[in-house]
Specification:
The complex is a heterodimer of chains A (about 190) and B (about 200).
Chain A: H1 3-21, H2 37-48, H3 50-65, H4 86-106, H5 113-144, H6 148-155, H7 159-179
Helix pairs in contact in A: 1-2, 1-3, 2-3, 2-4, 2-5, 2-7, 3-4, 4-5, 5-6, 5-7
Chain B: H1 11-14, H2 17-33, H3 37-52, H4 58-82, H5 85-108, H6 111-121, H7 123-127, H8 133-163, H9 170-183, H10 185-194
Helix pairs in contact in B: 2-5, 3-5, 4-5, 6-8, 8-9
Classes of the chains: A mainly alpha (about 190), B mainly alpha (about 200).
């Protein structure tokens, strides 16, 4: 990894930490308040691509593990990995990777804005919602003995907020690509 | 940035980070195989006594443990209604034990000790060419250094919105924040390379 890539990942990790310091916002039609931190995970993928995005998220989790209260709500320390919802935390790594990988595959600079936006949305939705929930729900079901069905139903309240975040991530991903393109091109 | 480390001279403070992390990992695995709620309740009590021996204080402990404990509690209540009291008690005591032990390890290990341990653990990965072990400490240092910087930029962007009478929206805040922050990457990377911090590339 070049020094520039390392610095980009570290800078993005700092952005994810700062997004966690912002107060959660309540939106009318969504049952639970949403935090900006998991938006940061999708953004890491759409802006930096698979490799650097994954490293950025790994760095955030490393800070958590060594005892810095960098998760939203001032959570941190190894205890953050002992919660029934810790699968979502571990899933962040794979969410950023899949979002980044799909972004690299689906989006090229020659496409029109609409196609790029749709590609980013699909990438953020697959990584940040489908993959993330697969990890979160599996962990929740296994660690608590709730069973998959109950764990799935219990997590549903958070899905609308995360779909909305995927949408924001898609628009932001395109805007950053226009302003300061960093996404590696595979397609 | 505040850390969750607490100064002290207890037995846990004096134990090496490696021993604590290994013990935590092994207990975590062992806890999965204990299925008796009674045994798990005793384990939770023992973990509670260990945590209490660190003398962090009720208020501070509550502030630290509240977010994780509340998630455990909510899930246990959910399990009580959809599954059984047995399942709920197992979940509650198992995860509470793990949370208390993990919080105790975090409170008694400095960031420096953690980073030394992680760097050491990364050595085998370095040998197969996956990561450079020394990069881990460097990156962690960089992130800690950048957080206040990014926060300042975020405030400046908010103020710019206010000055123009614009309503702050996620998109109009996030995009300039990302572009402004990432644009400094080249300078920082050049500064790191100019000082030869990462050795030969």
């Amino acid at each position: 990894m070049s020094t520039r890539d390392l610095v980009l990942a570290a800078l993005f990790a700092a952005i994810i930490v700062v997004l966690g310091l912002l107060p959660p916002i309540a939106i009318g039609f969504i049952p639970v308040p949403i935090t900006a931190q998991s938006l940061g995970v999708m953004l890491a993928g759409v802006v930096l691509g698979a490799k650097r995005g994954t490293v950025a998220v790994l760095l955030v989790l490393l800070l958590v593990a060594i005892g810095l209260p960098v998760l939203s709500g001032g959570r941190g320390g190894l205890a953050a990995f002992a919660a029934p919802t810790s699968g979502f935390l571990i899933g962040w790594v794979f969410a950023a990777f899949v979002t980044g990988y799909l972004s690299e595959r689906l989006i090229s600079r020659s496409q029109t804005g609409l196609v790029q936006g749709a590609g980013f949305f699909l990438a953020a939705l697959t990584g940040g919602v489908v993959v993330l929930y697969a990890f979160g729900i599996t962990y929740l079901a296994l660690i608590t003995g709730l069973g998959f069905k109950q764990a799935f139903l219990g997590s549903l309240a958070f899905v609308p907020g995360d779909v909305l975040k995927a949408f924001v991530a898609a628009l932001a991903g395109r805007a950053v690509m226009v302003g300061y393109p960093l996404l590696p091109q595979r397609a | 940035m505040n850390t969750l480390y607490v100064e002290g001279n207890s037995l846990l403070h004096r134990l090496s980070a490696r021993v604590k992390l290994l013990a935590l990992a092994l207990t975590g695995i062992a806890l999965i195989f204990i299925i008796s709620p009674f045994a798990l309740a005793i384990a939770a009590l023992a973990a509670g006594l260990l945590y209490a021996s660190l003398r962090i204080g009720w208020r501070q402990s509550w502030l630290r443990l509240r977010p994780v404990f509340l998630t455990i509690f909510v899930v246990a209540v959910f399990a009580f209604f959809v599954s059984s009291a047995h399942e709920a008690a197992t979940t509650l005591f198992r995860l509470t034990t793990l949370m208390l032990l993990a919080a105790a390890a975090t409170a008694t290990t400095t960031i420096g000790d953690f980073i030394d341990e992680i760097t050491l653990a990364a050595r085998p990965l370095e040998r197969i060419g996956l990561v450079k072990a020394a990069d881990i400490g460097l990156s962690v240092g960089l992130v800690i250094r950048f957080v206040p910087e990014v926060m300042t930029r975020y405030r400046a962007i908010r103020e710019a919105h206010a000055a123009r009478g614009l309503k702050p929206r996620p998109l109009t805040l996030a995009v300039p924040l990302i572009i402004l922050t990432l644009k400094s990457a080249d300078e920082i990377a050049a500064a790191i390379d100019a000082r030869g911090i990462r050795g030969q590339n």
